[in-house]
Amino acid sequence: MTTLGILGAGRVGTNLARTFALAGHDIVVGRRDPAAELPGGAEEFGPRIRFTDQRTAAATGDVVINATPGDTALARLGELRDELAGKILVDVSNATRHGPDGLPGELMYPDGSLGERLQRALPATRVVKTLNTMLYMVMTAPESLATSPTAYLSGDDQDAKDTAARLLGDLGWKADRIEDLGDITTARATEAVILLVTHVLRRRGLRPLAVSASG
Known about the structure:
CATH topology: Rossmann fold
Number of helices: 8
Number of strands: 10
Distance between the termini: 34 Å
Strand content: 15-25%
Strand order of the largest sheet: 3-2-1-4-5-8-9-10
CATH architecture: 3-Layer(aba) Sandwich
Largest sheet: 8 strands, mixed
Radius of gyration: 16 Å
């Protein structure tokens, strides 16, 4: 199994960590403040998950997942350029400015995408964008929705996307629900979906939500 470095210990990061650990992976979760107390204590997460700082998590993981806030991800991950060199970086974030109600507002990079900027900032890293068209609870439970959702892949390196697809399988995603859109520029389309998600959340509240390409 793979050692996964997960950057970010919020709802997204810990949700992914628990599910990947159940699938048999060893998980290193990088936190901004590794000394801060964890809700429920570290023992709640089991022996396959350990917590450290983000630089150590990036250096330790065979594959690294960015689950940090998208509005600060470019600067944060740029500082980890050496640790991420030669690795696959799976980016599940969206870069937006918060609206007055705290929900995602306008895109920070309307003329492109965070995925593209990460790839340019990390030329020795293979960036794959995925899981950013859904709320965090659907990432690890795609079967929870009545209509099967779709997980999209964007990235310049096919082997990296194939690896990401296998990891999605460990989260419960069936192969026919994973759509390879093409190179990293296609992340522009999936990142823009957050603008739709925001309006749905305002109407329906925080309920499982994802985009589906069923037809």
